[in-house]
Amino acid sequence: MCGIYGHIKKNGEENSVLVCLEGLRQLEYRGYDSAGIAGIVAGNIVSYKAVGKVSHLDAIVQASPRELDIAIAHTRWATHGGVTTENAHPHFDQNLNVALVHNGIVENYLTLRTFLEKKGIQFSSDTDTEVITQLIAYYYQGDFVKSVRKALSYIEGSFAIACIHKDYPDTILAAVHARPLIIGICHKTGDVFLSSDTNAFMGRSLDIFYLHDDEIAAISRERTEVYNKKGRKLTKITERMALENQKISKEGFDHFLLKEIYEQPTTIRRTLTGRLDSNKELPIFEELTVTDDFLKGISQIKILACGSSYHAGYIAKHLFEAYAKILTHVEIASEARYTDFITTKETLVIAISQSGETADTIAAVQNAKRNGATTISICNVERSSLSRESDSTLLLHAGPEISVCSTKAFTSQLTLLSLFAIKLGYLKGLAKNKVKELLSELALLPSAIEKVLRLESQIQSNSEKYAGYSDFFFIGRKHMFATALESSLKLKEISYLNANGYPAGEMKHGHIALISKNFPTVAFCGNSETLDKLLSNLMEIKARGGPILAFAPLSAQEIETIADDTLYLPETPDWLAPIPYAVAGQLFAYHIAKIHGTDIDQPRNLAKSVTVE
Ligand code: AGP
Q: Tell me, which fold does domain 256-443 have in CATH?
């Protein structure tokens, strides 16, 4: 988490403070605990810091505006140390010579802090970042690059840093280890920009390059030089990138989350666009660089992901097994990164990540690659770190997802994975008429979602009825199990209520002990194959006085004799039902959160991309 931005003015006319503020707004999804900017004026380091969102920092800047030609900036998701102004970045050494911003974690910070404190160095924050700053100042003997290189040689963990020194008033030094940082030079003005994410360069036409592990860039008005660990100068190849300014607006919706929920018929169409052959009878993925011959020979798939992306992977497992007959394992990336990754030449690893920046997913893919696996990533963000690690990338084309709580990316992941499962099925011998049938069912998804969206007011009434409870179970079977998990995560994330999902068959193995009249169960009844079994589970809950809200197909009218409340959703084949049911779950969570008055688009303690372990 945490976002880094920086700017050096050459012939441009923009004030570095305002450039950085704009950059931070684009990076705020990476953390919004605090924000800060530092620059150099007349040989002294000056700074602004604010607890909370970038808008708070903006207000502080407006209260005492300054014109800067060089600045580094940061938006924080707290790891070490509370959410306070002292812990907000940039951090300084005790003599205010160096200012530094950091994304990552210094794992040996306590050892280094103790070492520096023994030398009499005074710390003013609880952060791991301050250790890097003080260490650079400690080793500084007139050569800024050397002191940074020396300090970084002691750092264990991950980092992207940008720092300035008051003796070098027109230079920013930047370095990375396992965290992204991109440098962009404006070909018209010569102004230099740096950012944790290329999307924060929106509206600019820049020649960009990525810093690679253990490289240090010395960026000044006159030149940008990059050195490797040993101090050898490197030649970097730049690519021209002109991202148009995208108007990011709520378009009349109260929240980005609701806007994104409503976008789903369109985003699903976009995910499918261009991915069928000219007769619309076979899926095609032109961007795939792995060959059909390789795909034909796959004997196992490993899916790696976190959070909602993991849920999408779990649902897709059933499809790979049903249609392509390929043994599929789904692993939480933070676990998979530390496993003995058993692969064969016939193993395909699929990493799923909306952002493509989730540290654990990237590390799990690196682990898979070290063990010889072929990797495909499924991402929503172009040029992400995960794409650069993978052999091939399939993009969702769902458009920027602003709300921290994932909705449209999740349903596009499911759509793309469904299409990919059909492709693998076809390569593995699935009959052509079955492929055709599945594709025609897939094509009906956008209209199924439109039908769910038309039920919003009914879903809202149920949210009002259930908003007073503080604990919830979400249950389902087979395709509906991970749908239930996903819906419970939505509710937890944005309403801060206790919501837990489990496979309905597990109920008698412990969960049922919690059932009471104060503990409702939300049942996802969209898997017709297992409906009878689920109904028995619901009877057992009812017998113990637990309130039940059911999301069910119209054909399952018998549910009314069991559930306290039923919301009928469009009839959808079992394998695709997770998508409309997930949309209903999103609306249910949204309306409960709205009643609770939470910060729906940027819920407390969360960040859109989890770039630390
Ligand atoms: C979803 O609502 C969450 N905010 C979160 O679980 C998310 O899905 C997870 O952090 C993974 O992110 P990624 O898809 O960008 O890798």
A: Rossmann fold (3.40.50)
